[in-house]
Hints:
The chain is an alpha+beta fold. The chain has helices at residues 2-6, 50-71, 121-134; strands spanning 13-16, 20-24, 34-38, 76-80, 96-101. It is built from three helices and five strands, in the order αβββαββα.
Amino acid sequence: xxxxxxxxxxxxxxxxxxxxxxxxxxxxxxxxxxxxxxxxxxxxxxxxxxxxxxxxxxxxxxxxxxxxxxxxxxxxxxxxxxxxxxxxxxxxxxxxxxxxxxxxxxxxxxxxxxxxxxxxxxxxxxxxxxxxxxx
Length: 135
């Protein structure tokens, strides 16, 4: 990602400001797939400054509206950010995928078999308290 941002590799830039850049993904899920990345190297979310994260989402929000404006086939939009190898991160520079979706486009998430099981409310409340305490 740093090589793209520095100009050492070819890039199709959509947007750039002092904080972040938005560029076309070279392996798109669908035409119009854009990556929003901080200009400063940040390998994971913990390395990202709060304002950088906020600006990345603001830019992604604007991109979603642009995609839905009719410039590409777009009946919905997905945001995807993998934080850490266990989450599927392969490029260790934070990047938020913004990609247009349409019915029967072939993209899907594969959910675990346990997904259909409802969680116990007491367990959810206890976990919520643990997370609140960690904020």
